[in-house]
Amino acid sequence: MWYHYADKYRGVVLELRCDDELDSAWRIAKPVTYPTSKPAVYTADGWAEILTTTKNLAVEEMLMVATYTKAPDWSYEKEWRITSFSRPPESGLFTDYRLNPRELAGIYLGPNISTEDRERIVALAGQYPAVAVHQVSIGMTREFNFSAAGG
């Protein structure tokens, strides 16, 4: 996942803490599923069921499948995602959930991160009281190795 979504290991991975005291948005995260057969909404019977149910249930089912389902060859990612609708008084196509500084638990610097990006991120990490910064390297058998990445 890191290779695909973080610029071939040049980016970072953020570790987020779900803090019940903060009413964290991460509490509504759900795991992505990686079924070996197509979900029902991709079949004629599934569409028939969708077309004969209430609009709200149909939209909810299609949203769940579109958001939380991927092909089995992506199962190694073990993703979790959040989806929600706009909340009053929001408008527009998306919602930004605010990140409380206590929710950022770790920053993992990619093995191929540039020196400039590394220095900027380590400096910014000082604004987050509970964060640990780790430098990641790739070992001889392609395993990740982690070490503290102090300033």
How is this structure best described in words?
By secondary structure, this protein is an alpha+beta fold. The protein has 2 domains: 1-24 and 97-151, no CATH class; 30-81, no CATH class. Helices cover 25% and strands 18% of the residues. The protein contains 4 helices and 6 strands. A 4-stranded mixed β-sheet has the order 1-4-5-6, covered by helices on one side. The longest helix has 14 residues, at 55-68. The protein is globular, with a radius of gyration of 20 Å. The two termini are 27 Å apart. The model has no long low-confidence stretch (mean pLDDT 86).
Summarize the structure.
By secondary structure, this protein is α+β, with helices and mostly antiparallel strands.
Measured distance between first and last alpha carbons: 27 Å
Q: Major sheet: order of its strands? A: 1-4-5-6
Which whole number gives the mean pLDDT?
86
Number of helices: 4
Detail the poorly predicted runs.
Answer: none
Number of DSSP strands?
Answer: 6
How would you sum up the major sheet? 4 strands, mixed
Structural class determined from secondary elements: alpha+beta
Number of separate structural domains: 2
Q: Helical proportion? A: 10-25%
Order of helices and strands: HEEHHEEHEE
Keywords:
single chain; 6 strands; 151 residues; 18% strand; four-stranded mixed sheet; alpha+beta; two-stranded antiparallel sheet; globular
How are the SSEs ordered, and which strands pair?
Elements (H helix, E strand, L loop, with lengths): L1 H4 L6 E5 L13 E2 L12 H8 L3 H14 L11 E2 L22 E6 L5 H11 L6 E7 L5 E5 L3
Parallel strand pairs: 4-5
Antiparallel strand pairs: 1-4, 2-3, 5-6
